[in-house]
Design goal:
This protein is mainly beta. The protein is 4% helix and 41% strand. It comes from Candidatus Opimibacter skivensis.
Length: 246
Amino acid sequence: MKKLLLAIGIAGMLLACNSKPKVIEADSSTPVTQQPMVDESATKLHKVVVEEILNTEKYSYLNVSEGGETFWIAIPKKEIEKGGTYYYRGGLKKTNFESAEYKRVFETLYLVSDVSKDPGMTGMGGGGNPHANLSNTTPADKNMKIETPPGGITISELFANRKKYEGQTVKIRGKCVKLNNMIMNRNWIHLQDGSTKDNKIDLTITTTEDIPLGAVVTVEGKIALNKDFGAGYKYEIIMEEAQVLQ
């Protein structure tokens, strides 16, 4: 399904297959023309009851209810109990989201990284060393070609001229290829845009907004160099307090 493809995955997750949801899959064919809308309460804890489940090979569409309202969310495929109560944070809002597999259009659907039965959200990016999964380099997608946003720069440009951009607010468009959520009260996202400089191909950003794995987003934030978070984890370059632009 060419109109759909983890734009999610908070289980450390969320490749190209025409039969899979496109806006949520980490695949080079994820549409780059449609900007996701960010839920106003990106860090709010949601408590929902699952009313209906629609599974694909890699993802689950869940019709859930919360506070008397029902709506759809999409997560990486996992075993979900109908009638069960689950928790999640944030989500990217999509409108008129088409599923070719189910031959239907979801008027409103939220792309969510994961859900948990634990209100403390354990197993969803927490536990262990908070930067252990962030220090590894994600393999480059050589077919990825993402358009640079107006007034923005590429990741390779940032790495090539890091001193120029240190302490500056910059705009970058890229695909979320790795994430770790709600560690130290922020989400840690790896972005790639298809550009490379000295074998460096992704940029780590921190944000309080929820960006599902595979989502293509335009972000804006301040650049810091040689940022040391302790425990031996240090970033040569990082974008902090990034905001997802509409």
